[in-house]
Amino acid sequence: MDNPEAPPGIESKGEEEISRHRKLVERIAQFDEPPENLDFTISGKDCEYKVHSSVICSRSRFFDRAVKGRFVESTSKRIHLPEEDADTLELLISILYGFESSYSAELWPEAHADIKILLDGIDHVNVSYEGALDSPKKNTGLRLLRLYALVDRFDIFWLQEWAKEMVLLWVKTNPRSDSFVEVIRAVYRCETGNYSEFVDEIFALVLDNVDILIENDEFYEVVAENGELGAELLRHVLSTNKIVHSALDMNSSLTELQSIGGEKLVYETAKLQLKIHHSLAEFPGLARRST
Q1: Tens digit of each residue's pLDDT (9 = 90 or more) over 121-132
Q2: Neighbouring residues of 250: CB distance < 8 A, sequence distance ≥ 6
Q3: Mind giving me the DSSP string for 169-186?
Q4: Which Pfam families would you find in this protein's record (predicted)?
Q5: Three-class DSSP category at 226
Q6: Measured between alpha carbons, how far is 186 from 38 in angstroms, rounded to an integer?
Q7: Which of 17, 145, 226, 233 has the highest CB neighbour count under 10 A?
Q8: Straight-line distance from the first to the last Cα atom of the chain, in angstroms, rounded to the nearest whole number
């Protein structure tokens, strides 16, 4: 194993980053596999880790294909991920090994607790991770979205559904958060990950919270830059307006009928309107009118 005192490509990093890298290298070495089984290397922009292929293949379909398929990586025993920085690799390796990472600890208490529960079913060395913060960061929504993107990109199948649900849970419970609109923008842009599965749920949440969003200038910017979102909102507004105008017209008509024929004529007209649009069984109160 490479000397953890001089991790490749990380010399220019700060002391905290170097310490975190060394700590993770040590934890990998302490895993329930012999050190000589560190037979595969994962590298990114500015760091690399020697890992156990048996571990990463069992927990990621992406690495299973890379290591066992007919690719250069299967013979070179190395894969380079040029777009992944040190923080991303730290999170990725920590997830694959079932380690508690500083990233997960910095999310929010509910997410952190769920991660620990999920990892209970995976054999791992239970060592506290240095650098974890006591309080979640303000951009929790984007961090959860980043976590989902990582899980999805590397096909970490056992964590995918949970990661998706955590994003949706955060969005549903934080419509007034400063980063709520940022999450909407990220989902529709799909620049940091594939978020197509979120579009329908996010749009439904936008409609539910439109009274809050219309007070946010950034929301209008998101609508302006995304034609799909703008078109759906316009379609919804037009549809809603038709319903409102229809209800107002009906109310006006019933008022006129009441002045002409009294309440009985109003009742019969309303009953006829409802029978046209709905099954009478859905309105049991109209089936039998008390005298």
Answers
A1: 443 333 333 333
A2: 273
A3: HHHHH-TTSTTHHHHHHH
A4: BTB (PF00651)
A5: coil
A6: 37
A7: 145
A8: 90
Listed in sequence order, the DSSP H helices in the chain are: 15-29, 53-59, 61-68, 72-76, 86-97, 102-105, 109-119, 140-153, 157-173, 180-189, 199-208, 210-213, 217-225, 227-261, 263-277, 284-287
With a pLDDT cut of 70, the percent of the chain lying above it is 62
At 61, list the tokens: 């379909």
Please name which of 110, 167, 161, 165 lies closest in space to residue 144, comparing C-alpha atoms. 167
Give yes or no for a contact between 46 and 13, defined as CB atoms under 8 angstroms apart. Answer: yes
Tokens of 233: 């909102």
Provide CB contacts within 8 A for 25, sequence distance 6+. Answer: 1, 2, 4, 7, 49, 50
pLDDT digits (tens, 9 = 90+) for 95-116: 898 876 555 555 555 555 555 5
Average pLDDT of span 3-23: 65
Q: For the packed helices 157-173 and 199-208, what is the interaxial angle rounded to 10 degrees? A: 10
Closest residue by Cα to residue 39 from 54, 26, 52: 52
Q: What residues have CB less than 8 Å from 266, skipping those under 6 apart? A: 254, 257, 258
pLDDT in tens, 168-185: 988 998 888 878 999 999
Q: Which residue has the tokens 């017209």?
A: 249
Q: Across residues 154-163, what is the average pLDDT?
A: 90
Helix axis angle, 140-153 relative to 86-97, nearest 10°? 70
Q: Which residue has the tokens 């040190």?
A: 86
pTM metric for this prediction? 0.67
Name the phi and psi angles at 206, rounded to 5: -60, -45
- pLDDT at 13 exceeding the cut of 90: no
